[in-house]
């Protein structure tokens, strides 16, 4: 996990002494909105979605957290109810970092403080980019940009959707039907080739043109 990369080994050992491992089955809830949490979480393996759910059942997926990533850090510093539901999308192993041990590490290791600030800053920039995409760009642009980012993260011209189309659609702020239709349109244009959750990018340049197109009005 990047925030621990430059932490002194004795300090890591002390944090590990207080941390615990939690195994969560696919579909199980890690934590619910409104709960009080005195910790934050790291994903060792698996996948967790962070989501908001309306009384009507409509869901907005804010983030998918995979191996080597963390979530819930802000709750270490503010005693507020957890604002999101966190649900495992696969069998997942979590590392639970207690707030008291994290605060102690902050006081004793400036490298950890820098790493945590960098992580939170990156999260803020991602949130701004998400707001920009959802308000200024079309669904087609958002899908193209997402596929391009997946391929970049997974190295090469192939990408695998990390979750079901329903979850990915909720992450992009579209319906499952719209997401499927846009994938078909991109495939018909020869830009991608879809095989269930595996997607081959046949024309990355063309996909980039769509992703970086002018915002719609």
Descriptive overview:
The protein has seven helices and eleven strands. The strands form three sheets. Strands 1-8-3-6 form a four-stranded antiparallel β-sheet. Helix 4 packs across helix 6, helix 4 crosses helix 7 and helix 5 crosses helix 6. The chain is globular, with a radius of gyration of 19 Å. It starts with 8 loop residues before the first helix and ends in a 6-residue tail after the last helix.
Write a brief structural summary:
The protein is of the alpha+beta class. The chain is globular.
Question: How does the SSE layout of this entry go?
Answer:
Blueprint: H1 9-18, E1 20-24, E2 29-31, E3 39-45, E4 48-53, E5 59-65, E6 70-71, E7 85-88, E8 92-98, H2 99-108, H3 110-136, H4 139-154, E9 158-160, H5 165-172, H6 176-188, E10 192-195, E11 198-201, H7 204-211
Antiparallel strand pairs: 1-8, 2-7, 3-6, 3-8, 4-5, 4-7, 9-11, 10-11
Helix pairs in contact: 1-2, 4-6, 4-7, 5-6
């Amino acid at each position: 996990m990047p925030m621990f990369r430059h932490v002194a080994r004795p300090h890591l050992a002390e944090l590990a002494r207080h941390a615990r491992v939690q195994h969560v089955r696919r579909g199980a809830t890690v934590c619910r909105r409104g709960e009080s949490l005195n910790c934050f979480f790291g994903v060792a393996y698996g996948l967790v979605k962070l989501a908001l759910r309306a009384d009507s059942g409509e869901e907005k997926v804010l983030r998918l957290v995979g191996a080597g990533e963390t979530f819930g850090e802000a709750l270490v510093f503010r005693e507020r109810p957890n604002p999101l539901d966190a649900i495992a999308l696969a069998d997942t192993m979590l590392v639970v970092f207690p707030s008291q041990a994290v605060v102690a590490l902050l006081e004793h290791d400036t490298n950890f403080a820098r790493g945590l600030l960098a992580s939170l800053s990156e999260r803020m920039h991602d949130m701004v980019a998400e707001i920009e995409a959802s308000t200024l760009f079309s669904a087609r642009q958002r899908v193209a940009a997402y596929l391009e980012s997946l391929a970049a993260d997974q190295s090469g011209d192939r990408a695998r959707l990390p979750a079901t189309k329903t979850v990915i659609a909720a992450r992009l702020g579209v319906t499952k039907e719209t997401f499927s239709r846009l994938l078909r349109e991109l495939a018909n244009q020869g830009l991608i080739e879809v095989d269930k959750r595996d997607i081959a990018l046949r024309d990355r340049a063309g996909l980039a043109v769509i992703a970086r197109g002018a915002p719609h009005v």
